[in-house]
Amino acid sequence: MSNSIPPWQVTGLIFENCNCQLLCPGHISFKQHCTNARCHGYWAIHVDSGHFGDVDLCDVNAVIVFETPQRMYDGGWIQACYIDDQTNDSQRVALDHILSGHAGGPWRILQRFVETRLKPRAVPMRFEDAEREKRLIIPGLFRTTVTAIRGTDGQANAQITSLYNVIHGPTHVLARGHTRCTDGIFQFEHDKTHGLYSQFSWTASP
C-alpha cells in the first residue's frame, strides 16, 4: 500500500440484496454460478465508528451497486459507488479510497474482479436500522429493505457463521430483500430475493 495512504479502521453494518434466490451462490463462493445469467445487486454500508488517518468516518453511509456475470469469479464486473451527501470532502475521499480498494483492506480483493468502475457520486441518503429490517433510500434512484428470516424457534434470526467472506463479519443474518434501482445502466427490481446483513470490521495500515 502506498505510503500516502494513512492507517485506517472502520466498523459498522453491511447489508445486501441481489436477484438470486435464497441463498446467493456467489455469497458462498465467487466460483459458484448465481441464479440468473447476470447478477444485479448492491452492498450498503453504514459506518458506526472509524477513521481514515485523522478523518472521522463515524455515522457515514455508502452504497455500491453492481452487475456481474453469472459466475462472479469470471470478472468483468460493473460497479458504481454512491456516498451520502451529508459527508464532507475529506470523508468522501476517504470512503472512495477504502471502497475502491486503493487503501488496501478487503475491498482490494474485490476490485480484482471489477472491469468498469463508474465515478463515485454524492447523493442524498436516508438510512434506517429497525432491528430486523435495514433500509436505505436514495430519492429517485434507489430504495431497498432487507428483512431478517426467523430461525427454527420463530424468534431468533436465521444465521450463517464461520463462512469466509472478506467484507462481511463472522455472523451473517439471512434475509429477504426488496430493491428498486433506476439509475443509468442499473435498472432492476427485486422482490423477496437473497438478502443478508452483518457487522463488519475492516482495517489496513501502511
Helicity, as a percent range: under 10%
Low-confidence stretches: none
Q: What shape does the CA trace take?
A: globular
User: Mind describing the biggest β-sheet?
Assistant: 13 strands, mixed
**Multimeric state of these chains?**
single chain
Describe the structure.
The structure is a single chain. The chain has 206 residues and is mainly beta. Strands 1, 2, 3, 4, 5, 6, 7, 8, 9, 10, 11, 12 and 13 form a 13-stranded mixed β-sheet that branches. The longest helix is centred in the middle third of the chain and has 11 residues. The N and C termini lie close together (6 Å). The mean pLDDT is 95.
Overview features:
13-stranded mixed β-sheet; 206 residues; mainly beta
Set out the fold topology.
Blueprint: E1 8-18, H1 25-28, E2 33-52, E3 55-56, E4 61-71, E5 77-84, H2 89-99, H3 106-110, E6 114-117, E7 121-123, E8 126-130, E9 133-138, E10 142-148, E11 159-161, E12 171-183, E13 186-204
Parallel strand pairs: 5-6, 5-7
Antiparallel strand pairs: 1-2, 1-13, 2-3, 2-4, 4-5, 8-9, 9-10, 10-12, 11-12, 12-13
